[in-house]
Every structure is written in structure tokens, then in C-alpha cells.
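Forum > Structural Biology > Help requests

Title: Can anyone predict the 3D structure of Tubulin--tyrosine ligase-like protein 9?

Hi all, first post here. I have the sequence for Tubulin--tyrosine ligase-like protein 9 but no way to get a structure on my laptop. I'd be grateful if someone could post the C-alpha cells.
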Amino acid sequence: MAFFYNEGFVRICTHRYNTDSEDMNDLFMHLTNSSIQKHGHMDQVSDNPVNNAEATEAGGTKDRYDILDFSPYPGSILDVIVKSLVAGEDSIPFQVNSFDLYGYDILLDESFRPWLIESNSSPSMGRDNSLDYVIKDALIYDTMRLVRPLHFDRAALLSILNRRAHDLAQEKKRPNQLPPTEVEARALQQLNEDLTDILHGERPRQYGEMPQHMGNFQRIAPSAMHHQN
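Reply #1:
Sure, ran it for you. C-alpha cells for Tubulin--tyrosine ligase-like protein 9 below:
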């Protein structure tokens, strides 16, 4: 399953864009990377010189910044993300009991059409400003709640591994005379008992089962959009 987090960042340039040849090397005009723009100033965009993160964070103050309504566009952005997942599905390794976190860089053109720049696996969770703390802390919290990794008893696991090693050594000395079906049934029962001890009775989420806690996530695959693509 694939899930989309409903909060993100709008990265902007701190110098207004133009096509003048003398400004082609102005990094503050052409690159929205926060590592670059945090050193710039909004002196060419706003009368109030602030850095990029502060400008984005203050997005609700209409008398200071030109605010764009992005509400019609999340659907088209989701469409780009789902298409990229479908295109790369065969290259994403299937690993049971694991998850991946991807960061998508989407460019909106003058018509607000989304274009995929890149997708990053394990994006940085570093926090350089107050907005990073607001968005990323919530993302980490909601991710762990959605995945819900089960706590396991390390001492119980070690005890079970030692017992199994002892049982295997005993079987080599004295082969089991029970019918194969009974051996399999006993092994399955013992496995269930061992897992109950290790996980303290908690049941792992089954493949395809929806998480109990979605937080600010929404499922995008499988979905009607996913099947259309």
C-alpha cells in the first residue's frame, strides 16, 4: 500500500525570476533548495526581508504576501505521484514487514501543472527552522503510528532461540518418531506460542489490512486513481 502525507513544503526563490542573461548565475533566482535559499533575502519579492522558511511559514498573512490558492491542485499532484509509483513498481523491492519513506519534488509551472523533478528515498528529516519542526515532527509521529512497529521481548527471543538450538541438537541424537503431520502441527503450535511470548500477545497487521491510525495520511494505492493508471 502507498500513502500520501497531506502536509508539505512550498519552496520558493528569494529573488524574483526573470530571463535576463546577466542574472543566469543568480542561485537565489533559479534554485529553490532550502540549503541555498536560507541564505537569501526577500528584498526583491517583498518589502519585508525575511528568509524563505519564514515567508512560507507566514503564508497566512495576506497583507504581507501574495497568497496562492493551491486547493484545486493536490489531485493532479497525487496523479503524478501514483503514475511514478506504477512506472517504478517493478524496481521497488518487496520486503515483508518493512516500509519506505519517499520525498517528492514537484514543480508547478505557470499554469500550475505539476511536473515531477525527482523522488528521494529516505528524505532528510533534518530541521533548520520552526516550520521544519512543525511539519517533520508531525510526519515522523504519524508515520510511526501508521506503521505501528510492534515491541518485542528481546529476553524472550533469546530464550526461545536457545531452546530451539537445544531441541535441534537433541533431534540429531534421537530422531523424532512422530508422524510428519503431527510434527508439523506441533511446530505450528509452538511457533504461535513463541510469537505470543515475543510480541506480548500483540497481533501484527496483516498484508493489505488498513492501519488503525492514519494521522494526516491518505491511502493513494490501491485506490480508484491507482487502478486508472
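Confidence is low (pLDDT under 50) at residues 44-67. The longest strand covers residues 114-121.
Shout if anything looks off.
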